[in-house]
Amino acid sequence: MKSCLNTDVDEKSILQSEKKEKKYALICCEHIVSAEHPNAIRMAMLGRILQELDYEVAMLGVNSKYEKSGEHELIPYQNICVGSCTKLSDRFRTRKKLIKDIDNYLGTRQNPHIIIIASYVGVFESVIRKYAQKNKAIIIQSVCEWFDKQVFLGKLNFLGLLRNRYSLRVMNVHVGKIIAISTLLESYYKKHKCECIRIPTVLDTTKWIAPHYNSDDLLRLVYAGTPGKKDYLGNAIIGLALLPKTVRKKIRLDLYGVNMGDLISILGISRKVVDDIGESLIVHNRIPFEKIPEEIRKADFSILLRPNKRYANAGFPTKVGESMAAGVPVIANLTSDLSMYIKDGQTGLVVKDESPEAFSSAVYRALSLTPKEKYQMKLNARNMAEKCFDYREYIETFRQFLGMCGIAR
């Protein structure tokens, strides 16, 4: 009986010890936390990895209009309203409000041992850095972009370019602990003696439905998202227009997140090109985010063209991970680390470059595939997503990374 009582005491001691050793992590995004923002999805998946490593995780975001709190991917979050920062006086006022709001939010929680920051130099980040220093939290910087200079055109944006480059080249190196989204960024920060781990797009693939089988000969292509200046969607559309009308009748390209005005004003597509393509091009505008996976999975291929520039090679397209999770292979030219995942004829079709002519050639190849061949590629793409884009595949690697950063687990 005595030994049993001693065992109970030991078990209680172990439970109390485990409770005391509980670790806390805070993930900070310089944008609103929501399922529709690619970086917010990424940060939530990093949060899930930390949860698997027995951390209690919270997310903190900022918004210029309203405050919002809730739970995203099983992680509690809080968005703090900072208002506009167009004037210098706004920045001082915003900084003061941020300090107060962050203290109020974190005052009800345990001080974090780790703070992951997903932003560049700004009022929000500087406040978080000071908070980390004060509370002896270890900062880890998530780096997903190396913006092209074209993003900062104009005199007023020159300061933004300087801040961005200062963050990439100086602040991040000073932090010394980096989660990089690409090999290019990983190599850059390792060259500068940083502890660095590469994690591409990460998702919860169990939330994506099994691949869809299309039994007819229609070639279904899809693009979902806002192309901006990153994606050369316009070249893909022009590439379709280069095809003979008899060939185009066998193709349908569905666009989600883009309207007809965007095609003309942002992508520079002429009305004549749109009219020539006719029913082969269907523009759906924006649809609810939760409906996108179901629409993607109906396609035979998703499409992505990007130029071979540093911004494209430093980033990694979330669209590719999402497409493969939906069981849809990708027609794309190879930038960033896409060659690791898009295997020609297996999980996608490799386009020679981002030109309309190269895209047309790839479409001809896609048209030559039978329904069974296309379905096998869909299964291959899904399998690749499960092996390479599911957050669970990076749990042990992340544990080792924390060890390299001097964070014992």
Description:
- α4 links the parallel β5 (114-118) and β6.
- The model is unreliable at 1-7 (pLDDT under 50).
- α7 (233-241) packs across α14 (356-367).
- The longest helix has 20 residues, at 88-107.
- The strands form two sheets. The protein has an eight-stranded mixed β-sheet, with helices on both faces. It has a six-stranded parallel β-sheet with strand order 11-10-9-12-13-14, sandwiched between helices.
- By secondary structure, the protein is α/β, with parallel strands linked by helices.
- The chain is 44% helix and 18% strand.
- The chain has two domains: 21-202 and 391-404, Glycogen Phosphorylase B (Rossmann fold, 3-Layer(aba) Sandwich); 205-388, Glycogen Phosphorylase B (Rossmann fold, 3-Layer(aba) Sandwich).
- It contains 16 helices and 14 strands.
Number of beta-strand segments: 14
Q: Can you count the helices?
A: 16
Structural class: alpha/beta
Identify the quaternary structure here.
single chain
Low-pLDDT parts are 1-7
- The CATH class name of the largest domain reads Alpha Beta
Distance between the termini: 36 Å
Percent of residues in helices comes to 40-55%
Mean pLDDT: 85
Please give a handful of descriptors for the protein shown.
Rossmann fold, single chain, alpha/beta, 14 strands, six-stranded parallel β-sheet, 2 domains, disordered N terminus, eight-stranded mixed β-sheet
SSE map:
Elements: H1 2-20, E1 23-29, H2 38-52, E2 55-63, E3 68-72, E4 75-81, H3 88-107, E5 114-118, H4 123-135, E6 138-143, H5 158-175, E7 177-180, H6 183-191, E8 195-198, E9 219-224, H7 233-241, H8 245-248, E10 251-256, H9 260-265, H10 271-277, E11 281-283, H11 292-297, E12 301-304, H12 310-314, H13 318-325, E13 330-333, E14 348-351, H14 356-367, H15 371-388, H16 395-404
Parallel strand pairs: 1-2, 1-5, 2-4, 5-6, 6-7, 7-8, 9-10, 9-12, 10-11, 12-13, 13-14
Antiparallel strand pairs: 3-4
Helix pairs in contact: 3-4, 7-10, 7-14, 13-15
